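[audit] Reproducing an earlier prediction to check determinism. Same input, same settings, fresh worker. If the tokens differ from the archived copy the diff job will pick it up downstream; this log only records the rerun itself.
[audit] input (140 residues):
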Amino acid sequence: MENASKALIIAGAILISILLISVGILVMRSADEVVAGGGKAMDKQAKDIFNAQFTSYAGEQKGTIVKQLLNDVISSNAVYGEEEQVKVTGIGTDPAALLSTVKPSVKYNVEMKMSKYGIVSEINITQVGGTTAGGGTTTP
């Protein structure tokens, strides 16, 4: 009789242990979901920070501001990988070369294009009133 009662006590302890392990696993899974949700919010925040360095330049800008934008593009492209590279179109495609061709007193129109991931992928810079190779304006 003693052996039977000890066997029941051991069986009960094993069942309680299995129950505690199951509850621990459920708690860990729910904690993982909370952490994963926080990661998604951080991804959106990182996108907003990335976009903010460029979107403030949108619209009609003087050449000095466009040069600051080009410097931001050069530094961003040096830091981020191939997927986050920002391309420049319009008056030229090489931001470093454009630094010497953009005239400080001339006005430029700056437009941002977003990628399918929601980040700035292309910046179109056009001279207000037309463009010429020498940086002057043409008559429309």
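[audit] rerun output stored. Observation attached for the diff report: Residues 131-140 have pLDDT under 50 and may be disordered.
[audit] end
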